[in-house]
Design brief:
The chain contains 8 helices and 7 strands; from the N terminus they run βαβαβαβαβαβαααβ. The chain is of the alpha/beta class. It starts with 6 loop residues before the first strand and ends in a 5-residue tail after the last strand.
Length: about 250
């Protein structure tokens, strides 16, 4: 129960890595505000089942991360709870591939809005809550694509590179308030996002991994559990690669 007594916000919690993080956090004792863009009966039932099986509180929250007023309203709702916010996992994001000359600037802006600016928007509001108790852990879901920038990554890869840079900057700024800020850079993970990749590109990434396979969402979630826990109390400004040993 490494996260016993902690309360976390997890964005993009309805599927993939975000869903795995909710389950891993719950199994580790954390109570969670689980974010999804749309309010569905299936998501509520899923979160209720995870909460019940682990004896924790999971409260669904719904908003579009690119809608600033809705984001602020959700944080205000969370702030009204009797539970303090100990952990923020900025997991929500979108993928995109395409060469620069074939990608419109409007598309690049859209990807940055989700993968970068929405993260800053939510983080800025949540940091105010964390600063009151001078403690907290912020985990940004980056990507190896933000570290190893290659052709065709002008939108997704560069947005994740910006997120990595912001992670290091925020760690330097917020450390004095007792707030740690780290990023996880997953390799290709077995999610619906990976299913959208062209088969050749997907296989190439698998071949470049020392373990020669995709990551399981739970394997990335386990890294988030560590960074959220007090075991990582002296870890900040770090980008933890979970890429199977990319070569």
């Amino acid at each position: 129960m490494i996260l016993s007594g902690k309360n976390a916000i997890v964005t993009g919690a309805s599927r993939g890595i975000g869903r795995a993080i909710v389950e891993a956090f719950a199994e580790s004792g954390a109570s969670i505000w689980a974010h999804a863009r749309k309010d569905t009966r299936e998501f509520r039932a899923d979160m209720e089942a995870v909460a019940k099986s682990n004896g924790v509180v999971i409260e669904p929250v719904f908003f579009d991360v690119t809608d600033a007023p809705a984001t602020k309203a959700a944080v205000k709702q969370i702030a009204g709870s009797t539970r303090p916010v100990d952990v923020l996992v900025n997991n929500a994001g979108v993928a995109h591939g395409g060469l620069f000359q074939m990608t419109s600037i409007s598309t690049i802006r859209e990807i940055f809005e989700v993968n970068f600016f929405s993260v800053l928007e939510l983080t800025q509001s949540v940091v105010r809550l964390m600063q009151k108790k001078r403690n907290g852990s912020i985990i940004n879901m980056a990507s190896v694509a933000g570290l190893d920038l290659k052709s065709g990554n002008i939108a997704y890869g560069v947005s994740k590179a910006a997120l990595i840079a912001a992670t290091k900057t925020l760690a330097a700024e917020l450390g004095a308030s007792g707030i740690r800020v780290n990023a996880i850079a997953p390799g290709l993970t077995d999610t619906s996002m990976a299913d959208l990749m062209e088969k050749g590109a997907r296989q190439s990434m698998i071949d470049r991994s020392s373990l020669r396979r995709l990551a399981l969402p739970r394997e990335i979630a386990n890294v988030a559990v560590f960074l959220a826990s007090d075991m990582a109390s002296f870890v900040t400004g770090h980008v933890l690669c979970a890429d199977g040993g990319s070569i």
